[in-house]
Amino acid sequence: MSDAIWWQRGIVYQIYPRSFQDSDGDGVGDLRGVVRRLDYLVALGVDALWLSPIFPSPMADFGYDVEDYCDVDPLFGDLAAFDRLIGEAHRRGLKVILDLVPNHTSDRHPWFVASRASRDDPRRDWYLWHDPRPDGSPPNNWLSNFGGGGWEWDAATAQYYFHSFLKEQPDLNWRNPAVRQAIYDVLRFWLDRGVDGFRVDVIWLLIKDEQLRDNPVNPSFRPDEASQHRLLPLYTADRPEGQAIVEEMRDVLDAYDERVLIGEIYLPVERLVAYYGKDLRGAHLPFNFQLLSTAWNASGIARIIAEYEAALPPGAWPNWVLGNHDNHRIASRIGAAQAPVAAMLLLTLRGTPTIYYGEEIGMADVAIPPDEVQDPYEKQQPGIGVGRDPERTPMQWDADPNAGFTAGRPWLRLAPDHEARNVAMLAQDPTSILALYRRLIALRRTHPALAVGRLEHVVAVDEILIFERRHGAGHFAILLNFGHEDRVVARPGPEIPAIVLLSTVLDERGDALRPEIALRADEGVILDLTRLPG
Ligand code: GLC
Ligand code: MG
Questions:
Q1: CB of 154 closer than 8 Å to CB of 118
Q2: Same domain, 524 and 480
Q3: Are residues 502 and 395 in the same domain?
Q4: Which domain holds residue 150?
Q5: What residues in the chain have per-residue pLDDT under 50?
Q6: Residue 533 belongs to a domain
Q7: Cβ contacts of residue 399 below 8 Å, gap of 6+?
Q8: Residue 61: CB within 6 Å of ligand 1?
Q9: What is the CATH number of the domain that holds 146?
Q10: What is the DSSP string of 31-42?
Q11: 352-356 and 12-15 beta bridge pairing
């Protein structure tokens, strides 16, 4: 594995800082809390932690509205606490990835305060200001991704500004070279502090159509969907000029050694892979979110894997994501019984896996009563299921009243099952999902074939997904039963005895000596097909 870079062979673990570990009893997670849990991450076996935004912010969108790109919000700590986190992480061999939010700032960012102060301010052109149409209405039909119109009227200067999200999140003007340089300086500020890379927020939205053309109507819009899907984001997303910006960001990182550029991108595969850039000069890892939205069945997932692998440009490194802070948790989407199968899939596919905090203990969405809703997206379009609070609840560490997360009152309610589902208890149980995650990660670290090997023979037989991984002499087959019934399938690989390296059931299975193998309901297995010498 020596020739693979850390972000190719490694595993990324996403921390939503508000919800991971509180250290000061204010009910909100913080950087000192993260430091306290670094040994947990080492024991889990992950290689890098990605922190959702920690920068000073009015928290209209919980940190995705940045007021100062080069500091830490007092809620989370300060720069000294951050330096300590980097030091403690690096000392343990863990990398640290930050969340860069370059598409928009907070409306309280000094850049925007200046920009809205007058039409003549030097920062005016740092944001997207436009005149109304003759009847006073917004310049065009563009919408906010949280619902409602995308243009906000500013009476003092008699122009509209554009916001892809909340009106408290004005979009920066990425056509302005000064904006670009200012953000590249932000990258350097953190790279110089030792940060190992960035996950770039909504990287496919940075550039909007210069001619402000109206977005077309979406012919397949369903009335039960979030209202912004009424239009297709033809002129507000994935514009061709955006590629040059990704390349410029990459240039900034390339002046340092082995830093990683990850892009948040929700696009169909053929457009997604464009973000690797011409000659792979773009993002190292354009996030592959296909497992977030696909129907959970063997044939569909076999197809997704094959299509993705086929679409990857030569030399591009794949990646897979099961969950994040914007999507319902995997255990809720597919059911607790299939969560171990999802874990085995994520950790045996070819490409860098990203784990969302709590997935490793099988955390599920938590129903949040209407009067406790925090998420602005839910507040903007209540009751249609777009809210993101359910997947952002505090990490469940132990059976204490507040799950070991805080000594105070948690900012978001805990899962009702936290007394039974928590790290302390699952760590004692050799058949728990946490034990499975640890074993899968350990196997991935031991066998280069599972981490960086080739991916071969992807097939779906009834409800069983089968694929193989190979590297050097190492040869493994992965069989995943997406069904809730026992099945017998033909065993792939050569006609030699195969060793069951691991079953998601975590019991002793005995070796698979015969040409077929029986899988139990919701079971996945890794078979070792490595031919022994002689
Ligand atoms: C990204 C973030 C999401 C945020 C949005 C606006 O999609 O992941 O949480 O609300 O950008 O910044
Ligand atoms: Mg705190």
A1: no
A2: yes
A3: no
A4: 110-162
A5: none
A6: no
A7: 418, 419, 420, 422, 424, 425
A8: yes
A9: 3.90.400.10
A10: HHHHHHTHHHHH
A11: parallel
Q: Which of 168, 326, 328, 380 to mutate to test the pocket of ligand 1 (most atoms within 8 A of CB)?
A: 326
* Angstrom distance (rounded) from CA 273 to CA 29: 35
Confidence at residue 533, expressed as pLDDT on a 0 to 100 scale: 62
Residue 449 placed within a domain? no
Report the distance separating Cα 522 and Cα 116, nearest Å. Answer: 57
Any idea which ligand is nearest the CA of 321?
1
Q: Is 326 in the pocket of ligand 1 (CB under 6 A)?
A: yes
Give the helix ranges, DSSP H, for 73-202. Answer: 79-91, 110-117, 177-192
Q: Which of 438, 467, 485 is the last residue of a domain?
A: 438
**50 and 138 in a common domain:** no
Helix (H, G, I), strand (E, B) or coil at 455: strand
Residues 6+ apart with CB under 8 A from 85: 31, 34, 35, 96
| Residue 289 Cβ contacting ligand 1 at under 6 Å | no
Note whether 378 and 306 are same-domain residues.
yes
Task: Select from 185, 193, 187 the least CA-distant residue to 81.
Answer: 193
**Contact present, 471 and 449 (Cβ < 8 Å):** yes
Q: Are 120 and 12 in a shared domain?
A: no
Domain assignment of residue 169, yes or no: no
Quote the ligand 1 centre to 317 CA distance (angstroms).
24
Q: 252 in ligand 1 pocket by Cβ < 6 Å?
A: no
Q: Is 209 inside a domain boundary? A: yes
Instruction: Assess whether the C-beta atom of 201 lies below 6 angstroms from ligand 1.
Output: yes
Catalytic residue positions, numbered: 201, 264
Q: Is the distance from CB of 109 to CB of 53 less than 8 angstroms? A: no
194 C-alpha to center of ligand 1: Å?
24
Q: What protein residues have CB closer than 5 angstroms to ion ligand 2?
A: 22, 24, 26, 28, 30
Report the nearest atom of ligand 1 relative to the CA of 104: 12
Asked whether the CA dihedral 279, 285, 291, 294 is positive or negative, the reply is negative
